[in-house]
Design brief:
There is one protein chain. The chain is α/β, with parallel strands linked by helices. It contains 17 helices and 17 strands. It is 29% helix and 14% strand. A hairpin with a 3-residue loop joins strand 14 and strand 15. The chain is globular. The strands form 4 sheets. An 11-stranded mixed sheet has the order 5-4-6-7-1-8-15-14-9-10-12, with helices on both faces. The chain starts with 8 loop residues before the first strand and ends in a 27-residue tail after the last strand.
Length: 615
């Protein structure tokens, strides 16, 4: 197996909105308690009398009416002081409301808004497919005149008196349109998939990149892949990511039933009685930061993302048929990128959709990777959160990741439900996995840490697998960057680099070269006037245009910004402060090439220290 350099990423915040669980803590409680959250279709979603028929061959009907339904969640934008007018909120699909609520909970869990991360450096990358259910209803309203025209052309209706015909047509029109929301300027943005991420960035004033990813049932992990890549590349310093799915309308039921994919009886991954998947809905979101930054900021770290692997099925039996080769490649690539051996895994959260052939095919792919690495039979705990809440489609991978991250953080292995009669298409005696059927502690490995993998495979032959491990402080800290336990003596504190040249740096030893770490990412603090910057600096010209030129010196009558915030040029240079200053999340002890900056005034908002502790 080829190993790559690992770039660990920390999960510092998380939240969920799930069936029978309006919050992340409630969801984790349901998982550990073994709660089964599958129920019949609520009456306010769609009318079973109109669309149900147990005969699979009847056109335009569904033979399944069960699912995992979100019935409540926290929603109070006025109390949260979000600039969201009620008329705009009324036109938003439920998926956008879930995104806003879950993102706020995840950000708060990560320490927002009082955290040391610049909002300009926070991204929002979410997984979603089809947007939600609202666009079906708006399309029907817009196309309703076509149905009325068919009614007017009815031969039977033509036999009636003109006044009667008009009354029938008008009653039909009013009866439908009066019960459907109107089309306004807020309708389209309220139902677009990309606006799910845009709402979060807009309402929470996050200016990093925002977009959604659509990889069908792997959308959540596809978003995670982009989020981790952006962090590693220093495109942003924190990111809200995960998956959201609100697509449980009758349209989805009928179409999946015509494929023959749904179960009418229940969800039971890996069991002999598996006869199809049960749809679910919900959201699972995470806040990620580079591990070195999270440790530097003193964040609580739930777990560490080590690597993600992705693949396509390539040529196979069909566009919707899974290909074991593609699945195996995604798993193998994830562990290669993580730089660890698959045999060190203690648990795997499988895609596990509860189809007899699909489950057996996935387990064969997993066994080809983990078995080849030397994992003993039955040594790795196996589960699928779909046994609790059904298949969340675009949010399926995010739901599985939530379960794995909390399992690592709590050091517990939750049960996978409804596994009574093992799938006969699987050789369980030689398989390196064993389905966990009851809650138990996650044993601590010898000479290693707890570690697991999560899979998500989607329509169209797209596959993702992610490797996560428990957080052990300092475990991934580069040896050449030891954590400074105490500040250096005042006489040894070097001069600060120019503000225009600063960036977010990892915790470092007392001396390093500023030139080697300068232009990788933009500075984290914005000054109300431009500072002198090298001509090559990407923000130098833009800042000069945005703000008035900095005063050349103090006025004789009126104090300028410079005199009010900093010492005048003629004042003697004060001695270095004993307490080291922070740059980004860490103590700044860098020496610049010629920069000589006086210390900030204690009254300056820019110079106000967040903490006296050091990294």
């Amino acid at each position: 197996m080829t190993h790559h350099e690992s770039h660990p990423v920390a999960v510092v915040g998380m939240s969920a909105i799930m069936p029978d669980a309006p919050s992340g803590d409630a969801f984790w409680h349901n998982i550990t308690a073994g709660r089964y959250s599958i129920s019949p279709t609520p009456a306010d979603r769609w009318d079973q009398a109109l669309y149900y028929d147990e005969d699979h061959r009847v056109p335009d009907k569904t033979y399944s009416t069960i699912g995992g339904w979100v019935r409540e969640f926290d929603w109070n934008p006025a109390a949260w002081r979000l600039p969201l007018p009620p008329m705009v909120a009324a036109q938003m699909d439920e998926s956008q409301r879930w995104a806003i609520s879950a993102a706020r909970a995840a950000l708060t869990d990560a320490g927002w808004p009082g955290w040391p991360v610049d909002s300009d450096r926070v991204a929002v990358i979410l997984g979603n497919a089809l947007g939600g259910e609202k666009h079906y209803q708006s399309s029907m309203r817009i196309r309703f005149p076509e149905m009325l025209r068919r009614l007017e052309q009815s031969a039977t209706l033509a036999t009636l008196a003109p006044d009667t015909r008009e009354h029938i047509i008008e009653e039909t029109r009013r009866g439908y349109l009066d019960n459907v929301f109107p089309i306004t300027e807020d309708t389209m943005p309220g139902e677009l998939a990309n606006v799910i991420a845009g709402r979060v960035a807009n309402l929470f004033n996050l200016r990093g990149m925002n977009y959604t990813t659509d990889a069908a049932c792997a959308s959540g992990l596809a978003a995670l892949n982009s989020a981790v890549a952006g962090l590693v590349d220093h495109q942003f310093d924190a990111v809200v990511t995960g998956g959201i799915d609100h697509n449980m309308g009758v349209e989805a039921f009928v179409k999946f039933c015509k494929i023959g994919a749904l179960s009418a009886t229940g969800t039971r991954p890996f069991d002999a009685g598996a006869d199809g998947f049960v749809m679910g809905e919900g959201a699972a979101l995470f806040v990620l930061k580079r591990l070195e930054d999270a440790e530097c900021d003193g964040d609580r770290v739930y777990a560490v993302v080590l690597g993600i692997g992705g693949s396509s099925d390539g040529k196979g039996k069909g566009i919707t048929a899974p290909n074991p080769v593609g699945q195996q490649l995604s798993v193998q690539r994830a562990w290669e990128r993580a730089g660890v051996d698959p045999s060190t895994a203690g648990a795997v959260e499988a895609h596990g959709t509860s189809t007899r052939v699909g489950d057996a095919s996935e387990l064969a792919s997993l066994a080809a990777v983990f078995g080849a690495s030397g994992a003993a039979p039955g040594s790795i705990a196996l589960g699928s959160v779909k046994s609790n809440i059904g298949h969340l489609k675009a949010a399926a991978g995010a739901a599985g990741l939530f379960k794995m991250v909390r399992s690592l953080h709590e050091k517990q292995l939750p049960p996978s439900l409804n596994f009574a009669d093992p799938n006969p298409n699987v050789d369980w005696d030689t398989l390196p996995f064993a389905v966990t059927t009851e809650l138990r502690p996650w044993p601590e490995p010898k000479n290693d840490v707890r570690r697991g993998g999560v899979s998500a495979f989607g329509f169209g032959g797209t596959n993702f697998h992610v490797v996560v491990e428990e957080h052990v402080p300092g475990r991934h800290r580069p040896p050449h960057l030891p954590r400074a336990k105490f500040p250096p003596p005042p006489e040894q504190e070097p001069a600060r680099p120019p503000l225009s040249a600063r960036r977010r740096r990892p915790c470092a030893a007392p001396s390093f070269s500023v030139a080697a770490t300068t232009p990788i990412s933009p500075p984290r603090c914005r000054l109300p006037w431009p500072r002198p910057a090298p001509a090559s600096h990407p923000r130098a010209l833009r800042r000069t245009r945005r703000w008035p030129p900095r005063p050349s010196g103090p006025s004789s009558t009126t104090p300028t910004r410079r005199t009010s915030r900093r010492s005048s040029p003629s004042s003697p240079k004060p001695s270095p402060r004993a307490t080291p200053r922070r740059s980004g999340c860490c103590v700044s002890r860098a020496s610049s090439s010629g920069a000589d900056l006086p210390p900030r005034s204690p009254s300056s908002t820019l110079g106000r220290a967040r903490s006296t502790s050091t990294c």
